[in-house]
Amino acid sequence: MVKYSGVVVSSKNTSFDGAKLKALRMAAGLTQEELSHLLGVTRETIGHIENNRPSSINALTLNAVTKWAVVCNERADATQKNQFIQYLTEFVRAKIGI
Questions:
Q1: Phi/psi at 2 (nearest 5 deg)?
Q2: Sign, Cα dihedral of 57, 14, 81, 98
């Protein structure tokens, strides 16, 4: 279980969907390599997260998801931004029970 500011991002029951982050990266027109440089992680880490590799998803924090979104949202179109924000909002609400 990983926590950031009281919000569990990943647990045995539910975890963040890396495919959502992949869709946002692609909408931003970034390669895994480009995003890895912007985030300060390896390309392999990006790939593992996007493919929902358990060890990477379980280590994913809300801070990391937020940073990913900020970098990609600068380049993504409004539709993709809104879809990701809606997913993230629903995910966090479910996690904190509101």
A1: -120, 135
A2: negative
